[in-house]
Write a structure and sequence with these properties.
The chain has 329 residues and is an alpha/beta fold. The chain has a single domain, classed as Creatininase (Rossmann fold, 3-Layer(aba) Sandwich), CATH 3.40.50. The protein is 47% helix and 8% strand. The protein contains 14 helices and 6 strands. The strands form 2 sheets. A 4-stranded parallel β-sheet has the order 4-3-5-6, with helices on both faces. Helix 3 links the parallel strand 3 and strand 4. Helix 3 packs across helix 14 and helix 9 packs across helix 14. The N and C termini lie far apart (51 Å).
């Protein structure tokens, strides 16, 4: 029987990279995983030092007063299905991972706020375990966290998102939030740091897509979720959140995400019915499971390094704008 869930253990698990086995150090980026210490541009610090919820009020106050602490990252993700093999918390965990790695590179200038672990995911509700928020609920949560940070004196805030359903909502809301709060504010999804041509140099599914080798629409579009890239990231950073599932096991389950759903589930799915008709769920779900078998931890390390570098560059530009009194963007 599994141990009883608690909020504190959940938050600790989001920073689990700090307690995973050590990985090789790449001098071009922060170490991806470390047993007790993680690298930064200024030396080595304990990974928890950049997590806001692990600090005391005294530590935050003094860091802000000294001017050392200049920016905060707000991770946003989801608790939703990631096929048969990845934990439901994948998007929230990976967003927090990228935020933490970027903050370590910029230590002591950046802290990572408590993440938003549930996002906008109604189109995944046919898969049991998925949780979803209304659009307005999600945006209200994120805004309230940002407003809290600005009240304490943070003048630079970056939302780092790990879930596709949140992406457009955040991009649409940020301009109004900037005007309302008067701070240097932006929102990015870590995947924006990837270029398909670059991914194709080491991810098989992306090379196959660019070379025209994927023979169905399901395979051509399946790589965006719980597939080779996302599975590789989780294998590198959170191996305990990956289960090995063969295609034979997948097929034996006889999964059906296109009909015979309870009426309440159909209420969630109905707005996306046209999309599901164009690109049916069952073959795309299987394509994701198929492509996930191409994942490796080594691919995940490269993806984490690329995404981290993208976030670090954005944060550095934002901090410079704040310090110079320039508007952003």
């Amino acid at each position: 029987m599994q141990a009883r869930f608690s909020r504190r253990r959940f938050l600790q698990s989001l920073g689990a990279a700090a307690s995973a086995p050590a990985a090789a150090y790449d001098s071009r980026s922060a170490p991806l995983i470390s047993s007790s210490m993680a690298g930064s541009s200024s030396g080595f610090v304990h990974p928890q030092k950049v997590l806001l919820w692990e600090r005391t009020r005294k530590e935050v106050r003094e860091a802000l007063q000294s001017g050392d602490l200049k920016a905060a990252i707000v991770p946003t993700g989801s608790t939703e299905q990631h096929n048969e093999h990845l934990a439901l918390i994948t998007d929230a965990a990976t967003a927090t991972l990228f935020a933490q790695q970027a903050a370590l590179r910029l230590y002591p200038r950046v802290t990572v706020s408590t993440p938003c672990p549930v996002g906008y995911s109604p189109y995944h509700m046919a898969r049991k375990g998925t949780l979803t928020l209304r659009k307005e609920t999600f945006l209200a949560y994120v805004f309230d966290v940002i407003e809290s940070l600005t009240a304490h004196g943070f003048g630079t805030i970056l939302v780092v998102n790990g879930h596709g359903g949140n992406h457009g909502l955040l991009k649409g809301a940020v301009p109004e939030w900037r005007r309302k709060l008067g701070v240097t504010l932006d929102a990015v999804s870590y995947g924006e740091g990837y270029k398909e041509e670059e991914l194709a140099t080491f991810l098989t599914s992306y090379r196959q897509k660019l070379d025209g080798e994927l023979d169905t629409l399901a395979r051509q579009t399946g790589h965006s979720h719980a597939s080779e890239n996302e599975t590789s990231i989780v294998m590198a950073a959170y191996p305990d959140r990956v289960r090995f599932v063969t295609l034979e096991e997948y097929d034996r389950a006889g999964l059906n995400y296109e009909s015979d759903m309870p009426p309440k589930v159909w209420e969630y799915m109905e707005p996306f019915d046209a999309q599901r008709t164009t690109n049916p769920e069952n073959p795309r779900d299987r394509a994701r499971q198929e492509q996930a078998l191409l994942a490796t931890p080594e691919k995940g390390e490269r993806l984490i390094a690329l995404g981290t570098r993208y976030i670090v560059d954005r944060l550095q530009q934002m901090i410079q704008a704040t310090d110079a009194g320039r508007p952003w963007p």
